[in-house]
Design a protein that fits this description.
Elements lengths: L6 H16 L8 H16 L6 E6 L17 H6 L11 E7 L8 H11 L4 E5 L3 H16 L9 H16 L6 E7 L2 H8 L1 H17 L6 E6 L2 E6 L5 H15 L3 E4 L5 E4 L3 E7 L7 H18 L4 E3 L6 H4 L2 H15 L3 E10 L42 E10 L3 E4 L4 H6 L3 H23 L7 E5 L1 H4 L4 H12 L6 E5 L1 H4 L4 H10 L3 E7 L6 H6 L4 E4 L1 H4 L6 H17 L3 E3 L5 H9 L4 E2 L8 E2 H8 L11
Parallel strand pairs: 2-3, 9-10, 12-14, 14-15, 15-16, 16-17, 17-18, 18-19
Antiparallel strand pairs: 1-2, 4-6, 4-9, 5-6, 7-8, 11-12, 11-19, 11-20, 12-13
Organism: Cellulomonas marina
InterPro entries: Biofilm_reg_signaling (IPR052155), EAL_dom (IPR001633), EAL_sf (IPR035919), GGDEF_dom (IPR000160), Nucleotide_cyclase (IPR029787), Rev_trsase/Diguanyl_cyclase (IPR043128)
Protein name: Diguanylate cyclase (GGDEF) domain-containing protein
């Protein structure tokens, strides 16, 4: 129901929400039929025993049934209008449920199920069981109207009302006001890995711990999704507010043991990225305070999990100029939440070792010099006569199918993702998707499946102490041996304080590790030697100059020699023409990647290309 609006508007709201939740209704929607379907399903969804209850949808002007407190003929919209301020102005699907006397009112699980059925954020229930149940239902309505049903915390609107009152007191000479904006780190990963029930438990635990650490004058709220907030009505200055934020962050971060629905437990280590903002300007508004705390939270998230950041106007001047980036970041968040990111896969081929008569003039035997350049037929492993060449490996490359700009490569949005603190969540999604796709290829292609998959790991991910555990969990969940996964690390990530320790932990899992973009960073050779089994990937900027600059050729040759001496796999990136491939093979390069060998392609295209040709008169093997 939309309070203060007409019957037709409310009807359209309910019809639109329910038909969307229930599936496409067709071109000719019968309103009475839709409302009847909704009413018929409501008791079952609420968990009420069969035959004990009936329901009907109430619209503005419809009288509420008997035994509800107040006049028996009070219209439903007037009933809502008598609720506290925080209950008004929202969209409600109002159902009257007439249950037999003694029927136990629906529990929270049933009400949440009804919310999902109706397709609106909250459902108002009028339970006609007896006066006690009706009174309880109305009390619960008032509570739920201003409180989040999952965490029990006030909702955003209620918090903003508290902020308005606190700012008014401050304007009259009252205490300092601060707002903490907290983002629960890794909630999407928990939902994707252990289910939404685990994510709900994580949010509930964070909310309970937050509430337990507050003073009576403080107000905590759920702002939506994975975001919480705390109003400090007597902040005591920026240093004191930051100290409170750090104390709350520590309280939230205690280990949390969850029972899994399929048996066993998992121990989570919750953390929040927290932004702190003070109302230190005349005329400060609630919306501005929220925006400042939100901006500080994003800066904290870029720093790493569990960090606290204070909003300082001078430091955020550049952020205010990044309106376009902010919009792009919002779209990227939606794309991640709605699974609109993609992985494309580029083949990495093993090259034949050149013999005495097949040096650079004639090119590698059965190499792709004269063959097609999709990298999956007549490839450099010499399997062209027996069907498509199986690549030695594939590299998973991030893509975003943007609603306005089309298919974007990672370079078009990775900086925005890093600035917005999304790299860790995107990386977790990409890791699971790539490993899962490798398992799909195994099932579809058998021995013709790629031997391994390379997945890029950002410096932000490498700094997460639980990265090795998460990698191990993904491999165990999907059932892929660790040796078939290679994690590509940048030189920047390796130089971080967490880099070496993380790499050692990953190698203990028997995962492969590759140092990406070798030759354009600033790591020392000693750091390369420190990682005994790491593959080396020579950056494409050197490869592109291989046939034109002697210095580039000498450097590539030196890296190849170092790789052979250390027993490492060396992959030459950026091979874009036959001449470069011929010279690479002559120099002793054993593995190569680039457009000449194969462009990045969706997984389905890789599958289709790797299927062996059909025998004469038969279907593909």
């Amino acid at each position: 129901m939309v309070v203060g609006r007409g019957r037709r508007d409310a009807l359209l709201t309910v019809l639109d929400a329910f038909t969307t939740a229930a599936g496409p209704p067709g071109d000719d929607v019968d309103a009475d039929d839709v409302l009847a379907r909704l009413a018929a399903r409501a008791p079952e969804v609420l968990g009420l025993p069969p035959g004990t209850a009936t329901a009907r949808v109430l619209l503005p002007g419809d009288p509420v049934g008997p035994r509800v407190e107040g006049p028996a003929d009070a219209p439903a919209d007037e009933l809502v209008a008598r609720l506290p301020l925080e209950a008004r102005g929202r969209t409600w699907a109002v159902l009257e449920v007439r249950a037999a006397p003694g029927t136990t009112p629906p529990d929270d699980d049933g009400r949440r199920a009804l919310d999902r059925l109706v397709g609106l954020s909250t459902a108002l229930l009028v339970v006609d069981a007896d006066r006690g149940a009706a009174r309880a239902a109305r009390d619960d309505l008032a509570r739920r109207a201003g409180h989040d049903p999952l965490t029990g915390l006030p909702v955003r609107r209620v918090l903003l009302e508290h902020v308005d009152r606190a700012l008014a007191r401050r304007a009259r000479g009252g205490e300092e006001v601060a707002l903490l904006f907290l983002d629960v780190d890794g909630l999407k990963y928990v939902n994707d890995t252990w289910g939404h029930a685990a994510g709900d438990r994580l949010l509930q635990a964070c909310a309970a711990r937050l509430r337990a650490g507050l003073r009576a004058t403080d107000v905590a709220a759920r702002m939506g999704g994975d975001e919480l907030a705390v109003l400090l009505a007597d902040a005591g200055g920026p240093e004191a507010a930051v100290e409170v934020a750090r104390r709350l962050t520590a309280a939230v971060g205690a280990p949390l043991v969850l029972d899994l629905p399929w048996g066993g437990t998992v121990t989570l280590h919750p953390s929040t990225s927290t932004g702190v903002a003070l109302a230190d300007e005349p005329g400060a508004t609630a919306d501005a305070l929220v925006a400042h705390a939100d901006a500080a939270m994003y800066r904290a998230k870029r720093t790493g999990r569990g960090c606290v950041e204070l909003f300082e106007p001078a430091r955020y001047a550049a952020d205010r100029e990044a309106t376009g980036e902010a919009r792009l970041l919002g779209q990227l968040r939606e794309a991640l939440d709605e699974s609109r990111l993609e992985l494309h896969y580029q083949p990495i081929h093993a090259l034949p070792v050149p013999g005495p008569t097949n040096g650079p003039t004639n090119g590698p035997t059965n190499g792709p010099t004269n063959g097609p350049t999709n990298g999956l037929t007549n490839g450099p492993d010499g399997s062209g006569g027996d069907g498509p060449a199986v690549p030695w490996a594939v590299e998973a490359l991030l893509r975003w199918r943007h609603p306005e700009r089309g298919l974007l490569t990672a370079g078009a949005f990775v900086d925005v993702a890093e600035a917005g603190g999304l790299l860790v969540d995107i990386g977790a999604w990409a890791l699971r998707e790539a490993v899962t796709q490798l398992a799909r290829w195994d099932a579809a292609l058998g021995a013709r499946s790629p031997q391994r998959v390379f997945v890029n790991v950002s410096a932000a991910e490498l700094a997460q102490p639980d990265l090795p555990r998460r990698v191990a969990q993904v491999l165990a969940d999907v059932g892929v041996p660790p040796r078939r996964l290679t994690l590509e690390l940048t030189e920047t990530g390796l130089l971080s304080e967490h880099g070496t320790a993380a790499v050692r932990a990953l190698e203990e899992l028997e995962c492969g590790v590759a140092i990406d973009d070798l030759g354009v960073g600033y790591s020392s050779l000693s750091r390369v030697v420190d990682i005994p089994d790491a593959a080396l990937k020579i950056d494409g900027s050197l490869t592109r100059e291989l046939t034109t600059r002697p210095e580039a050729s000498a450097l590539v040759k030196a890296v190849l020699l170092m790789g052979r001496t250390l027993g490492r796999t060396v992959v030459l990136e950026g091979v874009e023409d036959a001449a470069t491939l011929d010279l690479a093979a002559a120099l002793g390069c054993t593995h190569a990647q680039g457009y000449h060998l194969g462009r990045p392609q969706p997984a389905d295209a890789i599958t289709a290309a790797l299927r062996p040709p059909a025998p004469c008169g038969g279907r593909p093997a």
